Amino acid sequence: MATPNTPLWEVFIRSRNGLAHKHVGSLHASDATMALQAARDIYTRRGEGLSIWVVPSSAITASDPAEKGMMFEPAESKIYRHPTFYEVPEEVGHM
Amino acid sequence: MYTQALNTAETDDRGLEDAAKAAQFQARIDAEERIEPNDWMPEAYRKTLTRQISQHAHSEIVGMLPEGNWITRAPSLRRKAALLAKVQDECGHGLYLYAAAETLGSSREELVDAMLAGKAKYSSIFNYPTLTWADIGTIGWLVDGAAIMNQIPLCRCSYGPYARAMIRVCKEESFHQRQGYEIMVTLCRGSDEQKAMAQDALDRWWWPVLMMFGPPDATSQHSDTSTKWKIKRFSNDELRQKFVDATVPQAQYLGLTIPDPGMVQDADGHWRYSEIDWTEFKQVLAGNGPCNRDRMAARRRAHEEGAWVREAAAAYAAKRAQRPTAQAAE
C-alpha cells in the first residue's frame, strides 16, 4: 500500500510581547503531536514564541479572493466608523 | 491555508478572458501589489515560480550535506554547536521554501520526487567537496554571503509566500555568514599551516561561488520575464558585481589572495574580475561536478531509509483517527 501524502498544518505562534497568535507558515505532519514538535523545530529555533497552535489546513474555511469586492464592501462606505470622521473643537485638546 | 479548492474550472472563452486577466495581473505587479496563492496568475508565472522556489528548497536541503560532513570533526565544542545549528537552519529554510512552493499547487511529495528523480535541479555550488575545516569557514563566508546577495531582493518578490519565506531566511542567514568569517579570521591569525589551509579553501571556492549567480546576463534564459514579473529585481551580473565588491575588502582584511590575477579596481571603485569558466558551470549542472553522484545518492538513501518512519507515522495516525469512533460505538 502506498503511503498517503502527509497532511498539511498551519502554524500560529504567540510571541513574547503578548500579542495574539499569528500565522507563521505551514508544515506537513501525520498527526497533531508531531505537528506541534515540528512547529517548534521549524518556527521557534530562536525563542520566537511562548505558545504554538497547529490547525489542519483542511479545517480552515477561507474567503474567496475573487469575491473580495463584495465581501468587504460594507466596510468601504462607512467612514463614520473612524474617529477622524468627528470634529472636536481644538480648545478641547487631545481626545 | 492555501488549498486549491477555490480555483474554479476553466471557462470556454479562455483565450479572451486570459488576455484581459493577464493585463490586470501585470497592472497589479506594476503597482507593487503582492500576488497571493488563490489569485489569478498566468500559467507561466506559476510554472516559473514553482521551478524557482522548489529548486531553492532542494538547494537548502542538499546544502546540508557538504557541511554535515564536518559536524563530527569540528575543532571545538563551540564550533560544533554553531555548525549543527547552521545545518539545522538550512533544513528549516528548505521547509519554509517547500511550503511556499506548494501554495502554487504541487504537493510536497511531487516536488521531492522530482529532485530525487534528477528532474529538478539544485544549486551547482553543493556539488563541490568540503575537503578541510577551512571549507566550512569559506562556505559560511562566501556561499552564504552570495546567497544573501541573491535573497535580499527576493524579500520584495511579487509572490507573497515566497517573499515572506525569504524574509525569515534572510534574518537567519546573517548568523551563517558571520560564523563562517569568524572561522576564517581564526585560521588566518593562526599558524602558517592554518593560513595556508584558508588560502587553499578560497582558491577552490572562489570561482564556483561566482558561478552561483547564474549565467551572464547576455545568455540567461529566464531573466526577462522574471524581471517583468518582479520575481527578479537585479540581473545576475549586477548581483555578482555587488558580491565581488563587498568581498574583496573582506579577503584583504584576512590577508588572503583572491585567485584572480587579472582582477583590477576600476575608476568607480568596482573590482573587475576575469572571465568565468562557464564550461565548468555547464558540466556541473549537467551532473558532472565532483560530487553530483554522491549528493544524489545521499539524498536518495536518506529518503529510502526514512520510508518506514513515514509509513509508521501514517499508520499510527490512521489508527488514532479510528479510535474515538470505535469507543463511541461501544
TrEMBL record, chain A:
Q: Which InterPro entries match?
A: PaaB, PaaB_sf
What EC number(s) would the UniProt record show?
1.14.13.149
Q: Does the keyword GTP-binding apply?
A: no
| One MF term in the entry's GO annotations | phenylacetyl-CoA 1,2-epoxidase activity
The question of whether Acetylation is a record keyword is answered with no
Identify the domain of life: Bacteria
Keywords annotated in UniProt: Oxidoreductase
Enzyme's top EC category: oxidoreductase
| Stated name of the protein | 1,2-phenylacetyl-CoA epoxidase subunit B
